[in-house]
Specification:
The structure is a single chain. By secondary structure, the chain is of the alpha/beta class. The chain has eleven helices and six strands. It binds guanosine-5',3'-tetraphosphate. The site of guanosine-5',3'-tetraphosphate (G4P) has 19 residues, from helix 5.
Length: 289
């Protein structure tokens, strides 16, 4: 797929993680609960091998709750790994995070033996929003474009709990093709780096199979959604939404924008684009290629 990645930007982040990880007790990786595997950065796993890990499935307000539970169980089944769901509406995120880390490393967390935690995640996963809400001040940028956190920060979240934030960008790595599409659908990829129509068609192909009822309700589709091809779905949605060109033709680009904007805002429903089983199959397929 036509997504432009900028691996050069990763070097700074990679160095910072490699350096910091030496005296870290727990590595927190923030994932997008709608696409946990696609939003993971395999480099983090490599650099932090052997360290206790906490996976935060963030933006769970947008994700399918049943599937979030599946993913949490999946991660908890791995050694030295904890997992929690989270979203910006959480009232005491710091407590949730501290409790999960202490569960992994119970012998730390006092003033003389602080628990040292590194937090990482790909851009747009909600890291700045979480840090800002835990510290009550704007220590990291939260904005429209995938964020940049300049310079490492140590945040004392509680007595005996130090949180280190990585500087630089950790871009996701596309291991499986579907992962690239899922990242693009989620908004983690800048608009200029992808073909919106292609991404919307892939998204609709998946939603048509797994979230047909939600699609039909959102767009008032009378057709049997499961039987429609992705182009037919996009066209039907464009028609319903009045995204038309002259001559009765549907403006597919406009229709794609509508679908992507709705998906990102959670307007179609609470949706998760991958399950642990699906991800396993996609990985095997991509290895076989
Ligand atoms: P980053 O530091 O990891 O790059 O991400 P950041 O916190 O900047 O968040 C990226 C976008 O995701 C922001 O939206 C933010 O509001 C949104 N976000 C963060 N956490 C959650 C969450 O738990 N649930 C939902 N639904 N959204 C979340 P934005 O549209 O880019 O900016 P803005 O409109 O909030 O200013």
């Amino acid at each position: 797929m036509a997504i432009q990645w900028f691996p050069g930007h990763m070097n700074k982040a990679k160095k910072a993680v490699a350096e910091r990880v030496k005296d870290i007790d727990v590595v927190i990786e923030m994932l997008d609960a709608r696409l946990p595997a696609s939003s993971a950065n395999p480099m983090i796993a490599q650099l932090t091998r052997g360290k206790p890990a906490l996976k935060i499935l963030n933006k769970q307000d947008l994700a399918d709750p049943q599937r979030t539970r599946q993913w949490i169980d999946y991660y908890k089944g791995k050694s030295h790994t904890q997992a929690i769901g989270l979203d910006a509406g959480e009232r005491s995120p710091a407590k949730k995070l501290i409790d999960a880390c202490l569960d992994l490393v119970p012998n730390r967390g006092s003033v003389d033996r602080p628990l040292r935690v590194l937090i990482c995640g790909i851009p747009n996963v909600g890291k700045s929003t979480l840090i800002n809400s835990m510290t009550g001040r704007r220590v990291a940028k939260a904005g429209n474009e995938p964020g940049v956190t300049k310079g490492e920060q140590r945040i004392i979240l509680a007595d005996g709990f130090w949180l280190f934030d990585t500087p630089g960008m950790l871009w996701p790595k596309i291991i499986v093709e579907q992962g690239g599409y899922n990242l693009a659908a989620s908004g983690a990829v800048g608009r200029n780096a992808m073909d919106e129509e292609e991404v919307a068609l892939e998204l609709l192909a998946y939603l048509g199979q797994h979230y047909a009822k939600e699609l039909a309700t959102r767009y008032g589709l009378k057709e049997d959604v499961e039987t429609l091809r992705d182009e037919e779905l996009l066209e039907a949605i464009g028609r319903r939404r009045g995204a038309m060109l002259g001559g009765g033709r549907v403006n597919m680009q406009k229709a794609a924008e509508i679908v992507l904007t709705d998906f990102r805002a959670g307007a179609i429903g609470r949706i998760t684009l991958e399950t642990p089983d699906e991800w396993r199959v996609w990985e095997e397929e991509s290895k076989a290629r």
